[in-house]
Structure formats: C-alpha cells, structure tokens
Amino acid sequence: MTAMAFDRRFNHMHVQLNAMFSSDLGHWDVPSMAEVMEETYELVEHDIVEKADFRKFVFSNAARMTPP
Q: How far is Cα 2 from Cα 54, in angstroms, rounded to an integer?
C-alpha cells in the first residue's frame, strides 16, 4: 500500500499522497529495531519506490508537518 501512495497512476487526480512511516517497533514481537528499517528499505531495493520517495516517506513528509 505504501507504494500506491507514491504512484500517481493509482491516486485520484494523479496526485502523490504524503504518506509517512509508522511502525510498531516498540512492540514485544519486534526483536530488532534495526530490522524494521531494513525491511522498509526493501521497497527501494526491489524498485517499488524511488529513493527520493522513500526519503519523503521516512523523513520529509513528517518533517514538513512539524510546527515552526
């Protein structure tokens, strides 16, 4: 579903959604927090999401929402 947020072909009026990374990494069933980001980056490694869009996903979109 993350990939669809960045693929304008699938979104109304062909816009890119401002998706943000969120994770349950604090939950008991996540043995290593580092593995969460490694798995997330597989979107780039498998050419599902562009690097620039991945940066938006894990940083830029959330940073833009921070109040001044």
A: 10
